[in-house]
Design brief:
The protein is of the alpha+beta class. Helix content is 14%, strand content 30%. It has 2 helices and 10 strands, in the order αββββαββββββ. The strands form 3 sheets. Strands 1-2-10-7 form a 4-stranded mixed β-sheet, with no helix packed on it. Strand 8 and strand 9 form a beta hairpin.
């Protein structure tokens, strides 16, 4: 019953869902109105490490990693959750003009009011979130 309660707590506190996006593939969308400065999602940075691309022996895995994980070109490494948990940040689409969340130290926080059913977007250049992202 303890695991069931933990799951129910997580479900009841969820404020986003994954759905098809008009911007790209799938994205995160607000379940309800989300007020500014609300924590949308967080990751435990202590469980993430850089893994050198050259050390990954399963070459069939590389396209998956390249699609779903941050890749730092300068050090030729992927930034991966060491527990290999599902991470909803993979579904956050980018927008230079209408981003409504910001990232800081593992936390994704709303910058503006995000309306119910609105897609949750981040500017990849803001706060050096994804320095490898091509220029606008």
């Amino acid at each position: 019953m303890q695991n069931n309660q933990t799951l129910l707590n997580k479900l009841n506190s969820r404020i986003f869902y994954v759905a098809p996006s008009k911007i790209h593939g799938v994205g995160l969308f607000a379940i309800t109105n989300i007020q500014p400065n609300t924590l949308i999602y967080s990751i435990d940075l202590s469980k993430w490490e850089y893994i050198k691309k050259t050390t990954i022996l399963n070459r069939d895995l590389l396209p998956y990693l390249e699609k779903y994980y941050y890749y730092n070109k300068k050090i030729n490494s992927f930034y991966i959750d060491t527990e290999f948990n599902h991470c909803f940040t993979h579904y956050i689409n980018y927008s230079f003009d209408s981003s409504n969340i910001k990232y800081s130290k593992g936390q994704y926080i709303s910058k503006t009011l995000i309306l119910k059913e609105e897609e949750i977007l981040i500017n990849p250049k803001e706060n050096n979130y994804n320095p490898n992202f091509p220029a606008q």
